[in-house]
Design a protein that fits this description.
mainly alpha, 11 helices, about 0% strand
């Protein structure tokens, strides 16, 4: 049995004895060892450590572990697992508005545009309620770029124009028109809106 396997085995035994703190420490040691040997074979350990922090009532530490896991899953082309971790974060820390933005981008990257738009709208609504429209617009622009969603891009342009950001609104409309032409679609309606 390797040192890594021994650490995981000891951590599981600590869990069985409800010694959550010891289990966390052993799992973290196993993760450090995994990273030194070139991981990411054990990404699930971040999730496990987060769950143990929840048992100890340490929500902030749990969320940190879940976020690390979500980031690592996304980096390793496992967006479905990253989405699951983001949803888990929202169950234990529903005030984390930034997670909706992350979910929108993850869903867009996997082609789940309906889910992506839903998460994006939750993000925008929360940011607007918090009075941070600039962050909301930035999130929507990033989403439109990732998803290639020109309906969203045109909605951004409308919001920007309403808020007096004409140059940014025009830039978004031009992008939407160029994308439409690239797809072989008629961009006349968008170009007409540009002239107004």
């Amino acid at each position: 049995m390797t040192t890594f396997q021994k650490l995981k085995h000891e951590a599981r035994r600590a869990e069985q004895r409800s010694d959550w703190r010891k289990a966390i420490n052993l799992y973290r040691e196993a993760l450090r060892l995994d990273e030194r040997r070139g991981g990411p074979d054990e990404l699930g350990l971040f999730n496990r450590i987060g769950d143990l922090h929840i048992r100890l009532g340490e929500v902030a530490q749990a969320v940190e572990c879940y976020e690390t896991a979500a980031d690592r899953y996304a980096e390793n082309q496992l967006p479905t697992s990253a989405v699951a971790l983001c949803n888990k974060i929202l169950r234990v820390a529903p005030e984390r508005t930034d997670i909706f933005r992350r979910l929108a981008l993850l869903h867009a990257a996997t082609g789940l545009i309906v889910e992506a738009r839903s998460s994006l709208m939750q993000y925008v609504d929360r940011m607007q309620a918090a009075g941070d429209l600039e962050a909301a617009l930035e999130g929507v622009q990033q989403f439109a770029d990732v998803a290639g969603d020109d309906d969203i891009r045109l909605a951004i342009a409308e919001l920007l124009a309403e808020r007096g950001h004409r140059a940014q609104a025009v830039a978004q409309m031009r992008l939407a028109a160029a994308n439409a032409r690239r797809r072989g679609e008629d961009a006349t309606a968008i170009e007409d809106r540009l002239r107004k």
